[in-house]
Amino acid sequence: MSLPAFLLGAIMVLVTLLDAFEVVLLPRPVRRRVRLNRYFFKCTWDVWTRCARLWPAGRRREDFLGVYGPLSMVMLFGLWAASLIIGFGLMQWALHGLVSGRATGIEALVGDIIISGDAFFTLGYGDNVPGHWAARLLVILEAGTGFAFIALTIGYLPVLYQHFTRRDLQLIEFSARAGSPPTAASLLLWHVHGGPEELERWLRDWEIWASDLIESNAVYPMLAFYRSQHEGHSWLGSLAVVMDVCTLLIAGADDARRQQATATFTALRRVLDEASESLRVAPLREVSARGLDLASLELLTPTIRRILPGWHDDSLASSAIWQLRGTYEPRLEGLAAYLLLELPDWIDPEAPTERFGRDVIVRQLTQGRQD
């Protein structure tokens, strides 16, 4: 039993250290499917979402889901620490059997795991000193591992929250333009007076945001579980609205006006691909229209033409819109279903015909002040 126990402990330690290295230190995505943290997030998120579905969609469910992101990282660090302590404890227990030539009991195993925890957190009680040089060397190795593990944990969390903060800051600016709930109609309405140049500059900012999010989702896929700290905001919902606007511009605008929209659309679609690949979420085969039909498109046309007078609303443009939607809607709705995030409509279904005048802007601002 001693040699298999030693090998089992060594495997636990090596697998845990490799997993922690890939998550904390490796600055590139890991495509290997067999990973400790991947199974951890899959199992815990499945349990968490099942519990969340006990509440109807609303604030209580969102509050419950918002806890998972930070709590999952604490649980992951705890899992790593427990795995290392048990692994080193098994190795210590096996060394006693290998050195003495006789097997030791369960009490000795429990005692060695406790001593392993003492060494891992560098408590230094000193009431149990290993007699063999190999066991002493193992204690030194574990103490160094524990010290490095705590240091890396302390240094990792600020980096993770920096990426989260950069993602969330963009959403605050977005909500002021796209409304709450956000829609492509409200976003276009905001840019009526600024003209196409202002809209292109705004889309350029979102291309930069998408580039940063591509890196974040590749290296820190757990950020997808972090809910926005502001109620009614969602990184996936905001991404959907911007892609909807880009779709309209690409389908009907002139070549000179569709370049920035194409670049932003391509970057945002890569965000979806990266997030889906990192979380292993398959695209949905059947997607909803999200409130877009020919009647809704006719309502959007006057607003778009106030920004881009040369925008086309012919059959070719309509066909291009549906084709472009087919390139991102399946992944978008697949991620939304997996993360339990609501996707916004193109036009507010409660007042689709009242979203295109100055009075609506005043009403929105007044409503936001009253709230």
TrEMBL record:
Question: Which UniProt keywords are listed?
Answer: Ion channel, Ion transport, Membrane, Transmembrane, Transmembrane helix, Transport
Residues in coiled coil: none
Q: Pfam families from the xrefs?
A: Ion_trans_2 (PF07885)
Q: Which residues cross the membrane?
A: 6-26, 67-91, 133-157
Please, one GO biological process term? monoatomic ion transmembrane transport
Domain named Potassium channel: residues: 120-157
Against InterPro entries, the record matches this protein to:
K_chnl_dom
* SUPFAM superfamilies assigned: Voltage-gated potassium channels
Name by which UniProt lists this protein? Potassium channel family protein
Species annotation: Variovorax ureilyticus
